[in-house]
Amino acid sequence: MSDIPAAKYGASWWHQLSILFRRNMYDYVRDKEKFASLCSTKLTVSILVGLCWWSQGSPPSSLKAITITGCLFVFMMNCCMDNIMVTALRFPANKQIFLNEYKNGCYSSGPWFIAFMGHLFIIQTFMAFLLLLPAYFMIQLRMDLTHLSIAVATIFVAGCVGATAGVLAGTAAKDFEQANSLVLPLVMPLILFSGYVIPYKDIPSFFQWIYFVDLFQWGFTILRLNQFDGLEFEDCPPLGTAGAWCNCEGQFLPPCTGTSFLKTIDLDPNTHPIWPYFMYMLCFLTLLLVAAFALIRCKGTTKTG
After folding, report:
1. Residue 305 above 50 pLDDT?
2. Distance CA 294, CA 283 (A)
3. For residue 133, which of 144, 122, 154, 148 has the smallest C-alpha distance?
4. What is the longest distance spanned by two Cα atoms in the chain?
5. Core-most of 90, 162, 212, 247, by most CB within 10 Å?
6. Is residue 7 part of a domain?
7. Domain of 27?
């Protein structure tokens, strides 16, 4: 697929990219009330999550490990669902503008796509901070810079993948209504088969393959490994404590640790390091970007009427 042969662009490739990127950023923030509403929505969700799990992370308690896991699940669910749904529902309008301008020879498809996705990823960086940071400090999860950076990076990459998946769904859809009908079948398997709602061992065998290609599961796993690996809990529940996954008898036994908790949910850090999950997410993001670009360019070069 090549750009429309007859088109003679009045600006260079880089000049097109610069103009289109600035236009996209301006369009996103020009309606200050709408932009403020989007920001306040993310901030409100973060504050609500923080209030629901207020100070659950400090002091580290083995009895709260499952509770903290639920909080991490909510982070991923909001990040992925919101980005896929919002982008998929909004993109058909952007697609129509692109098709009209592209077929009239206003610019090349490459600069448009890079500019559009670039502005989307920058917005995702900002939104990742709004979604994560207030709740993170309110819950008092691991506060050192390394663990905080990994958590932010996870939300950012997951948000970018979700937004790109939304662009792909919006490109495939003919209009807003069709995009809306595509979103739920795309999102629900990610949530159901991520290993939290339905534990992996309980997922029907013919659906277990979804677990291994599930963006939601990859990001959720990173957040759990980041939070619990190497963490030492300050309590050690006596034998028979309700809800305890770790019990101690006597003062000389080792304390409960986050690593032990991860092993109880089949996430041994020795066999499940964090970096491969980041690689899976980045590879998946690359595949989605290539597919989205190929599809939108194909639509742009297809004759209509």
Report:
1. no
2. 17
3. 148
4. 82
5. 162
6. no
7. 14-301
